[in-house]
């Protein structure tokens, strides 16, 4: 049976990440960065596309697994007829080269353990040349080189283009494997001590988690989400990728398969707010600084997403040799939506920089000049149709959420000048813009017969992003139009108590066949909206259900199918975990802040 998306746990070193299945197989790993080509791509194909499995001989899925509390160190255990064994997986903070450390420990009886390492560079398409050198197995193909060693050394051999090892452990026995990647033209990097790496990793993660200021209900879920966001951060730049994977399907067997290993501006304000509220100012500042570097340039060229260091070219192409997760093709690398116009990102950037300024993050030169340039562009550009928050591929429209976020940009610019009058700016012009956008949205984006805002001007379709209207301050929570929109969105986009982001029945909107699951962050937004409008008990019930949709180690993907009970989409999804943190802080913040 093909693994499920929820079968995977994440390990990482804040520059890349690996997915470990319940059978003890590492099925996804891109080296040296999140967006590099994978050397293990079984996740999107089969065993011949690369994986590394360590498990008791003849065993299947593990008996139990868990992260060590407040860490990203994963323990996987098997109970067999012969005894019990544990495999501990981690990626220590790198000095220069990335290392994947796997430590096998005997717990009970005498257990024979088998390791199969099948390296396949370039997304499972290249079989490397493997040789022995200095007690290592060395795999080389083109620019890639990987070194495997064990401590103590165990018997290993090559078979069917894979490296096998077999050994027996009894209680207290430990065998550590270390896989190290480096560019093939460079000498082998210094060796890491796997057991010291484990001790340091546990201590470092727990020290980081202890900084969390939230101590209310569901603290474990909040801390797990924050650790996940930290793991999705590219430490050298502060950018946070949307997910660690590409092409995990939004519909099993469907074509809605996208590459999420990049940094989206749509997440910026919610990300910054979550980090600041939870007590992680250093990470918030790094994210703000990444944002500033990424958006620098002509405001007309502002993109909806960027690479880990702010790269702008993210060309989309397909990998025909990969069969896709559960047969879901095509497998895509890069993301063509990078070329889209999404006016909402201007509001996200302005809102983020305003929040950072009000939170007291250290000022940076030219921040206000960047904001003024963005506003100068929006003054005329806001009238254009765009592709909207959800990156639809069915053509541009006047999306209501996009116009609301233009209003947010103008509102934050006005508020900044009112609070800091020594700054220069077109205060009266931006006030007029704010009023004009507000008036147009209320006239053209609102359906008085149904008492709801709509997805786009003149449309009868709805959009879960409309739930953000009270959150961003466009209208107060008790406005009848807000209350009507919440009820309409819940009724028309609801499915088994969760929310779709929009209807996929009209293919003219997103231009794609098939459907998708309920969108988890939208369900968190519903909880927020219910809470803001005084329906806190309903909000808490929904939040509790959403927390329960995480897998056994607390990870959330992008979407969920409540009928099959399956996670869908890329995993772990930063947007989903940001939603969890922000909703917990909204619902329990006053009683949970420490």
**Helical percentage:** 25-40%
Ends apart, CA distance between termini: 46 Å
- Mean pLDDT, all residues: 96
Structural class: alpha+beta
Kindly provide the radius of gyration, computed on alpha-carbon positions and rounded to a whole number of angstroms.
25 Å
Residue fraction in strands: 15-25%
Assembly category? single chain
Overall shape: globular
Low-confidence stretches: none
Number of helices: 14
Query: Main beta sheet, described?
Result: 8 strands, antiparallel
Annotation keywords:
alpha+beta; eight-stranded antiparallel β-sheet; 14 helices; 594 residues
What would you note in describing this structure?
The protein has 594 residues and is of the alpha+beta class. Helix content is 32%, strand content 22%. The chain has 14 helices and 29 strands. Strands 1, 2, 3, 4, 5, 10, 14 and 15 form an eight-stranded antiparallel β-sheet that branches. α6 (344-358) runs parallel beside α8. The longest helix is centred in the C-terminal third of the chain and has 20 residues, at 400-419. The radius of gyration is 25 Å and the shape is globular. 52% of the residues are buried. The mean pLDDT is 96.
């Amino acid at each position: 049976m093909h693994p499920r998306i929820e079968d995977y746990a994440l390990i990482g070193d804040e520059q890349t990440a690996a997915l470990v299945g319940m059978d003890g197989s590492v099925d996804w790993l891109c080296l040296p960065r999140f967006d590099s080509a994978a050397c293990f791509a079984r996740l999107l194909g089969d065993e011949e596309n690369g994986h590394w499995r360590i498990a008791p001989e003849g065993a299947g899925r593990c008996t139990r697994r868990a992260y060590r509390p407040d860490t990203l160190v994963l323990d996987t255990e098997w109970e067999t007829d012969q005894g019990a064994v544990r495999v501990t997986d981690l990626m220590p903070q790198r000095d220069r080269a990335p290392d994947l450390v796997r430590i096998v420990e005997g717990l009970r009886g005498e257990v024979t353990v088998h390791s199969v390492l099948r390296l396949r560079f370039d997304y499972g398409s290249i079989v490397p040349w493997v040789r022995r050198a200095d007690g290592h197995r060395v795999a080389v193909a083109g620019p890639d080189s990987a070194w495997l060693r064990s401590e103590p050394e165990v018997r290993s051999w090559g078979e069917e283009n894979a490296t096998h090892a077999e050994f027996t452990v009894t209680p207290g026995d430990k065998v550590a494997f270390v896989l190290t990647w480096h560019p093939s033209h460079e000498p082998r990097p210094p060796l890491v001590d796997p057991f010291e790496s484990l001790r340091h990793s546990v201590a470092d993660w727990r020290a980081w988690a202890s900084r969390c200021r939230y101590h209310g209900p569901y603290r474990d879920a909040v801390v797990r989400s924050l650790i996940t966001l930290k793991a999705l951060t590219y430490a050298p730049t502060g950018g946070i990728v949307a997910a660690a994977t590409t092409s995990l399907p939004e519909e099993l067997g469907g074509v809605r398969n996208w590459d999420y290993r990049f940094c989206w501006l749509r997440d910026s304000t919610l990300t910054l707010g979550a980090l600041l509220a939870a007590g992680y100012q250093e990470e918030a500042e790094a994210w703000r600084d990444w944002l500033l570097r990424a958006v620098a340039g002509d405001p007309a060229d502002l993109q909806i997403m960027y690479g880990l260091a702010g790269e702008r070219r993210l060309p989309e192409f397909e990998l025909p040799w990969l069969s896709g997760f559960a047969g879901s093709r095509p497998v895509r690398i890069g993301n063509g939506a990078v070329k889209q116009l999404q006016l909402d990102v201007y509001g996200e950037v302005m809102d983020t920089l305003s929040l950072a300024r009000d939170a007291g993050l250290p000022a940076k030169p030219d921040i206000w000049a960047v904001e003024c340039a963005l506003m100068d562009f929006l003054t005329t550009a806001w009238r254009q149709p765009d592709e909207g928050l959800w990156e639809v591929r069915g053509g541009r429209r006047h999306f209501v959420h996009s116009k609301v976020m233009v209003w947010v940009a103008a509102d934050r610019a006005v508020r900044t000048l009112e609070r800091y009058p020594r700054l220069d700016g077109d205060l009266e012009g931006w006030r007029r813009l704010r009023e004009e956008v507000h008036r147009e949205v209320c006239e053209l984006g609102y359906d008085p017969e149904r008492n709801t805002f709509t997805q786009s001007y003149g449309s009868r379709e709805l959009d879960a992003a409309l739930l953000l209207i009270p959150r961003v301050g466009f209208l107060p929570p008790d406005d009848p139009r807000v209350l009507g929109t919440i009820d309409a969105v819940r009724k028309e986009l609801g499915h088994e108590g969760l929310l779709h982001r929009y209807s996929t029945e009209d293919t003219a909107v997103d231009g794609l066949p098939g459907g998708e699951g309920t969108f988890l962050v939208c369900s968190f937004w519903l909880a927020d909206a219910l809470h803001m409008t005084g329906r806190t008990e309903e909000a808490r019930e929904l939040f509790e259900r959403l927390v329960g949709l995480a897998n056994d180690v607390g990870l959330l993907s992008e979407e969920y199918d409540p009928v099959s009970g399956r996670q869908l989409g890329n995993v772990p999804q930063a947007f989903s975990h940001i939603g969890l943190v922000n909703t917990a802080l909204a619902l329990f913040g006053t009683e949970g802040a420490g």
